[in-house]
Amino acid sequence: MLYDVRLDLHYDYDAPVHGGRHLIRVAPISVPGTQRVIAASLSFEPRPQRESAFTDFFGNAVTTITYLTPHDHLDIRLTARVQVEDIHPPADLSPTLEHLRQEISRFWSVEPDSPHHFLAESGSVQLVPAITAYARAAMAGAPSVLASANDLCMAIHRDFIYDSKATDVQTTPAEAFALRKGVCQDFAHVMIAGLRGAGIPAGYVSGFLRTNPPPGKARLEGSDAMHAWVRVWCGQHMGWVEFDPTNAMIAGGDHISIGHGRDYADISPIVGVLKTHGSHETTQSVDVIRVE
């Protein structure tokens, strides 16, 4: 499937910003066999005095911008055309949880996609006993790692309410779990915490969803903003499989990946420092339109 993607991020500052440096992670990446970026363009208003690009440890595209002159707003615009393969749910070749532990112990690589990076606590995902117990109960009786991850994905979708006002970007998995409410970031963090607590490597994926559903299908939750879902290491034969607990599904042709990391902090759309006082307001809009 072929998509045109447009993202607009707007920041209004209470007081002029006297210089700043930001890392921007909003551009989709090419993933062999899954996704190909045909064209992508990032623009900024006001125009930064310095701009460069690099690829981070996990393979995400990062643009750095630096401002040396005062400004009272920042507009970030992404336009891209991306081809996504509509991959059907894979055949289950994943091991049992016990055999997964053995496979991980024999996996010596520490390359970016190594499962070892996605087993322990990370900055935004803590291992919470209550979440681990919830995950183990949801996955009880599952015959494989893939089935376990799918059962937990469905349980979170069933037991949690999508509520954009219940949480914010700083909400922890423990807080979202106690509320049983949140947005895609919260659902992803809770699922990651549960899987890691049970010994299953899991990471965070940031991206976009198709805006308009195919005829006869419901509109996916979270399609008007940047979205988040979960990648799960399902053993040496299957590798990484992606799940969307917000929409109770394995990620497929409607999902466009920006990149991944251990949690939101590794793939947040903008981070940096600036010199100002007061607060700021943020708005965003996303359009993902299929090209017929």
Strands, total number: 13
SSE series: EEEEHHHEHEHEEEEEHEE
Average of per-residue pLDDT values: 93
User: Shape from CA axes?
Assistant: globular
Total number of helical segments? 6
Provide the low-confidence segments as ranges: none
Structure characterization notes:
Helix content is 21%, strand content 39%. It is α+β, with helices and mostly antiparallel strands. Strands 1, 2, 3, 4, 12 and 13 form a 6-stranded antiparallel β-sheet that branches. The model has no long low-confidence stretch (mean pLDDT 93).
At a glance:
It is built from six helices and 13 strands. It is an alpha+beta fold. Strands 1, 2, 3, 4, 12 and 13 form a six-stranded antiparallel sheet that branches. A five-stranded antiparallel sheet has the order 10-9-8-7-11. Strands 5-6 form a two-stranded parallel sheet.
Supply database-style keywords.
292 residues; alpha+beta; five-stranded antiparallel beta sheet; 39% strand; globular
Chart the SSEs and their pairings:
Blueprint: E1 2-24, E2 35-45, E3 50-55, E4 61-84, H1 97-105, H2 129-139, H3 145-159, E5 161-162, H4 173-179, E6 181-182, H5 184-197, E7 202-209, E8 227-233, E9 240-244, E10 249-250, E11 255-261, H6 264-267, E12 270-274, E13 280-290
Parallel strand pairs: 5-6
Antiparallel strand pairs: 1-4, 1-12, 1-13, 2-4, 3-4, 7-8, 7-11, 8-9, 9-10
Helix pairs in contact: 2-5, 3-5, 4-5
